[in-house]
Design a protein that fits this description.
The complex is a heterodimer of chains A (286) and B (402). With 286 residues, chain A is an all-alpha fold. Chain A has a single domain, classed as ABC transporter involved in vitamin B12 uptake, BtuC (Orthogonal Bundle). Chain A has twelve helices and two strands, in the order ααααββαααααααα. In chain A, a hairpin with a 2-residue loop joins strand 1 and strand 2. In chain A, helix 2 crosses helix 3, helix 2 runs parallel beside helix 4 and helix 6 packs across helix 8. Chain B has a five-stranded parallel beta sheet, sandwiched between helices. A four-stranded parallel beta sheet of chain B has the order 10-9-11-12, sandwiched between helices. Chain B has a three-stranded mixed beta sheet with strand order 1-4-3. In chain B, helix 8 links the parallel strand 11 and strand 12. The chains are: A mainly alpha (286), B alpha/beta (402). At the A-B interface, helix 1, helix 5 and helix 10 of A face helix 2, strand 10, helix 7, helix 8 and helix 9 of B.
Chain lengths: 286, 402
């Protein structure tokens, strides 16, 4: 029983981080209709930002998160303005091609500049934990979970309450109507992609604290984010976190009760089941 | 043209009278390999790239390979398989069919070597590979494939032998291994070793190599409370395992050991203090006792390697050097570049290298003992070979007491 509880704790905490990874991907997908295959590479870059801020400048990793997010926002904003704006509203295949190319480029540039060394963001408290009712609660994953919730909440508030947020949602729902009301879609797209990149940056920093950063972590993370973005839905930030938690718990339980080698079968199996049972809802959103 | 011809004739006339010390320069002998220069395994792939390069350069600096008085320089032809097994196989075909390389060196990792070696066998071109340890590679009756890593199934042999002599002696073990060719072979061999030595396996779990998330396995281990953890996998996963073990407060009662990672500088750097106490194993340590015709000894080799490439070599690099040296020795012994004859010469090489004693078993794989190592104060110390070399830090303290 205690073991089951521990598995749930592990799954939920990990799932929160998964959710944060998918948040930016879902946002960009929902608003720009771009399935960003370079999303994992953006997470990787965010991880390196935090890593170098921590090891090079001695900035605490959690304090470095906003800095990394700001840097990634600018990067994402520029990327959208100068590159991705070329393919906006073109066929899905084009967006897949260009983001795939971007992913390959960022990955190999990262190896060129940062080498293939394994990097961990390892502040003294990264390995700490405390006990609650016999369950071990690890500090770093818990903090990552809280950050994920906060960011999802913040994104949700921005989208619902602010003028820019409304403009973003309006652009996603009906571009023509939004333009008629004076929304500048170019700016909205750039802002959205920037926000997506910033969220990826935060996820990368947290990922480096619980796991490790190499130039090659991106591909797996893109795949995970993809599944979760669909699980959680593209227009509700908190739904994406829930999707992440669902995946985290499913993986943890599979690893214990079936076999760890089946975790990928289960997560992508979930995706298939979902696509079969809820297709209408998905396509309405996408 | 006519003038050139005259010169040539003159040169030919003079040639026999030249001192015999200047040997005839023969055509270059090309060694080809497709390895992980980029991609998930690039971190270990570089040991092979740099190991091959330093060995080829050194052999050439010492005059190349002598075949019946003709000295042939060695040339490397390396392709980047991007850590993709299927691409690697195609590249080995390309190396043989288009680039027409003379002989083959191997890629890193058992999964790759398993598939790539089939190309060598099919074309009947000798391959000496230092990156695949799985017994599977050598269980297919291939004639042209040789390996300089000792069998994966035996990796935990010396560790378990050491455990029997430590007090308190462990009784239960958790076995955690990845699902690739190397680790499956390690797990299979380790189960047998544990059974023979009365070590009961209470947790036996495999994890997917590409999704190394250990929290469930670690929680299970915590609930079973084993004396030792015998872990098998590659370096990035070992790193995750130790970090997650710390965050979840999971520690075996007595010790844990890892097949890969512990001897590597990068591993210690990434983990810092958390790398302490980890046991591992290596078939090679940079020792001055390992003499060699080309580098002098193992310690000198390690120093030169570090100076040239900026990081310390580990057994992967030494194994790569031994592969190139094996070709040099075998070609000289065969006295020809003929593939079949060089193959036979490789099968009977028997020489001392900075890597160790190179001699292949009937199935083509080397047989070497693994030295148990442990990280103590940031250094990799040899602990146990046939007997104790250094005192192990044992048992392992729980995380909060470290």
């Amino acid at each position: 029983m205690l073991l089951l509880g521990q598995i749930l704790v592990n799954g939920v905490l990990l799932g929160g981080l998964y959710g944060l990874m998918a948040l930016g991907m879902g946002l960009v997908w929902g608003v720009l209709n771009i399935v960003n295959l370079a999303h994992g590479a953006l997470i990787m870059l965010g991880g390196y930002c935090v890593y170098f801020l921590y090891t090079g400048a001695g900035v605490d990793p959690f304090a470095a998160l906003p800095l990394a997010m700001a840097a990634m926002f600018c990067f994402g904003y520029a990327l959208q303005t100068f590159l991705l704006s070329l393919i906006i509203r073109s066929a899905m295949l084009n967006t897949l091609l260009i983001t795939f190319g971007l992913d390959v480029m960022l990955t190999f540039l990262a190896q060129l500049f940062f080498s293939a060394d394994l990097r961990t963001i390892n502040p003294p408290y990264a390995g700490d934990n405390f006990d609650v009712l016999g369950l071990t609660i690890p500090v770093a994953p818990l903090a990552a979970f809280v950050v994920a919730l906060l960011l999802a909440g913040a994104l949700s508030t921005v989208l619902e309450r602010t003028r820019t947020g409304r403009a973003i949602r309006a652009t996603a729902q009906n571009l023509t109507a939004a333009r008629l009301h004076g929304v500048n879609p170019r700016r909205i797209y750039a802002l959205t992609f920037g926000a997506g990149a910033a969220l990826a940056g935060a996820a990368g920093g947290l990922y480096g604290m619980v796991s490790q950063i190499t130039p090659y972590v991106g591909v797996t993370l893109t795949a995970k984010s993809f599944v979760i973005a669909i699980l959680g839905g593209l227009d509700r930030p908190l739904g994406v976190i829930v999707g992440g938690v669902a995946l985290g718990v499913a993986e943890a339980a599979t690893a214990l009760y079936l076999d760890p080698t089946y975790t990928n079968v289960i997560s992508f199996g979930l995706l298939v089941v979902l696509l079969v049972t809820r297709p209408a809802q998905l396509f309405e959103r996408a | 043209m006519r003038r050139n011809l005259t010169l040539l004739l003159a040169a030919l006339a003079v040639a026999p009278s030249l001192p015999a010390a200047a040997p005839v320069q023969g055509k270059a002998v090309t060694l080809g390999a497709a390895l992980q220069l980029t991609g998930a395994l690039a971190n270990t792939g570089r040991y092979y790239r740099d190991g091959y390069q330093i060995a080829v350069d050194r052999i050439n600096a010492k005059g190349g390979v002598a075949v019946n008085g003709t000295r042939h320089p060695l040339v490397l032809r390396l392709l980047d398989n991007q850590s993709d097994v299927n691409l690697g196989v195609r590249q080995y075909v390309q190396l043989l069919s288009q680039d027409k390389v003379d002989f083959l060196l191997g890629p890193f990792s058992s999964n790759d070597a398993l598939d790539d070696s089939s190309v060598a066998e099919k074309y009947q071109i000798p391959m000496v590979q230092g990156g695949g340890a799985s017994g599977q590679i050598f269980a297919r009756g291939y004639k042209y494939v040789f390996g300089t890593l000792p069998p994966a199934g035996d990796y935990y042999q010396s560790t378990v032998r050491m455990l029997k002599r430590l007090s308190p002696a462990p009784k239960t073990a958790a076995l955690v291994s990845a699902d690739d060719a190397f680790d499956v072979a390690v797990a299979k061999g380790t189960r047998k070793i544990c059974a023979e030595n009365g070590l009961e396996i209470v947790v036996d779990k495999q994890y997917p190599e590409h999704n190394a998330e250990f929290s469930s396995i670690l929680s299970l281990i915590k609930s079973k409370d084993p004396d030792v953890i015998l872990w098998s996998g590659h370096e990035p996963q070992a790193l995750n395992f130790i970090r997650q073990a710390k965050t979840l407060g999971v520690s075996p009662r007595l010790m844990y050991s890892f097949t890969v990672g512990v001897p590597t500088a990068d591993f210690r750097k990434a983990l810092g203090k958390d790398a302490e106490y980890a046991f591992g194993m290596t078939p090679w340590l940079p020792s001055a006792d390992l003499r060699d015709d080309w580098f002098g000894d193992g310690a000198t080799f390690a120093k030169e390697y570090q100076e040239r490439f900026g990081y310390q070599p580990d057994y992967h690099a030494a194994s790569a050097v031994a592969d190139v040296e094996t070709f040099a020795k075998a070609i000289e012994a065969a006295g020809t570049l003929d593939h079949a004859k060089v193959r036979d010469a490789i099968a009977s090489v028997d020489f001392r290298s900075i890597y160790g004693h190179v001699k292949f078993e009937q199935n083509g794989q080397i047989s070497m003992p693994q030295t148990v190592v442990q990280i103590q104060d940031g250094q990799v110390l040899p602990i146990f070979g046939d007997d104790f070399v250094h005192k192990p830090r044992y048992p392992l303290p729980a995380w909060p007491k470290r």
